[in-house]
Amino acid sequence: MAVFALIPAAGMGKRMGASINKQYLLLDGVPILARTLEVFQRSPLVGGIFVVIPQDEIPFCREQVVEQYGLSKVRSIVPGGAERQQSVLNGLRAMEGVAADDDVVLIHDGVRPFVSEDILSRATAAARENDGALVAVPAKDTVKVVENGVITATPPRETLWLAQTPQAFRYCVIRAAHEIADAERFLGTDDSMLLERLGRPVRIVVGDYRNAKITTPEDMVLAEAFLKEKQQ
Ligand code: CTP
Ligand code: MG
């Protein structure tokens, strides 16, 4: 049973507000996306990588990231869609004929460069034994549900987990869940949700607070610090 990585990297990085797409911002001289892909390139588990990129950025990504950093496991650079879910679906469709039904797909945001081999291996193991697995960390803060500026609920903190990636599934399971959501025009905020709505269990794999998604400018400050710590 092979393991494939599917890396959605076709967003616009609007919340970062940088002049270039956030995934090409440099961390110690290396683009964030290249750092993310390198983790999968190095992993002995991973047989191939599919990256999803905005159509007009594909040549730039091929030259400046995939070729520049010798990412030989990248099998295909797939054009993305308007929403992350559409980008992932495009990637899953591009895997047809390459990934077998029981192969594991690790869906991982292109802007989470601090994912570790340990997380990849625990997520893969959990995906083999369950319908799906989601890497997540316990919420540190109390979370409030708010409507029109007024708190309507305070869910018990012990029940709250913050979703990260990778989210790991057998290929046939996640492909079917995405196709159903697409046909029903259901838009979820992550991949796990598309299984949850079908009543299929998704297991939590305990992640790492450092496996953060680089979203806003202050995340770059944190990312520099995490990188320094790693390099020590
Ligand atoms: N993504 C994607 N296709 C989209 C939107 C997002 O592949 N249409 C990817 C992003 O490139 C990123 C990941 O999904 O790697 C997580 O999304 P997010 O952090 O929201 O990135 P952006 O959508 O680029 O940022 P923003 O929402 O601030 O515009
Ligand atoms: Mg987004």
UniProtKB/TrEMBL annotation:
Enzyme class: transferase
Keyword Manganese among UniProt keywords: no
Listed pathway(s): Isoprenoid biosynthesis; isopentenyl diphosphate biosynthesis via DXP pathway; isopentenyl diphosphate from 1-deoxy-D-xylulose 5-phosphate: step 2/6
An example molecular function term from Gene Ontology annotations: 2-C-methyl-D-erythritol 4-phosphate cytidylyltransferase activity
Site positions per UniProt: Positions MEP for the nucleophilic attack: R157, K213
Keyword Transferase among UniProt keywords: yes
Transition state stabilizer (site feature) positions: R15, K22
InterPro entries per the UniProt record, alphabetical: IspD, IspD/TarI, IspD/TarI_cytidylyltransf_bact, ISPD_synthase_CS, Nucleotide-diphossugar_trans
Transmembrane domains' residue ranges: none
Entry-linked Pfam families: IspD
Catalysed reactions, as listed in the record: 2-C-methyl-D-erythritol 4-phosphate + CTP + H(+) = 4-CDP-2-C-methyl-D-erythritol + diphosphate
UniProt keyword terms in alphabetical order: Isoprene biosynthesis, Nucleotidyltransferase, Transferase
EC number: 2.7.7.60
PANTHER family (alphabetical): 2-C-METHYL-D-ERYTHRITOL 4-PHOSPHATE CYTIDYLYLTRANSFERASE, CHLOROPLASTIC
Function, as annotated: Catalyzes the formation of 4-diphosphocytidyl-2-C-methyl-D-erythritol from CTP and 2-C-methyl-D-erythritol 4-phosphate (MEP).
Family (UniProt): Belongs to the IspD/TarI cytidylyltransferase family. IspD subfamily.
Protein name in UniProt: 2-C-methyl-D-erythritol 4-phosphate cytidylyltransferase
